[in-house]
Amino acid sequence: MKKASIPNQETRQRLISNLRQTRLELQDFGIQLEELLAGIEKEIRETKLKRLTKSKQKLSL
Predict the structure, then answer these.
(1) Does the pTM exceed 0.90?
(2) I need a surface site. Which of 24, 37, 46, 61 has the fewest CB within 10 A?
(3) Using an 8 Å Cβ cutoff, are 15 and 6 in contact?
(4) Which of 29, 33, 52 is nearest to 41 (CA)?
């Protein structure tokens, strides 16, 4: 079986550069996604806390 290769050094460097750029973009996207998920989780916790507080107030009456 013949091993694939990129004979042109300039082409090889361009492809490697593109791969590095894509990796950085994916890392950036991952961080943005983590921030979004953290915001959603915060909203969920706040909603649960409000419900808990309302339930406690109803029991106190």
Answers:
(1) no
(2) 61
(3) yes
(4) 33
Give me the torsion for CA of 15, 17, 19, 24, rounded to 10°. Answer: -170
Q: At 20, list the tokens.
A: 């590095």
Number of H helices, E strands in the chain: 1, 0
Model pLDDT for residues 22-51, shown as the tens digit of each residue: 999 999 999 999 999 999 999 999 999 999
Q: How far is CA 37 from CA 30, 34, 41, 43, 58, in A?
A: 10, 5, 6, 10, 32
Residue found under tokens 């706040």: 46
Cα distance between residue 29 and residue 25, in whole Å? 6
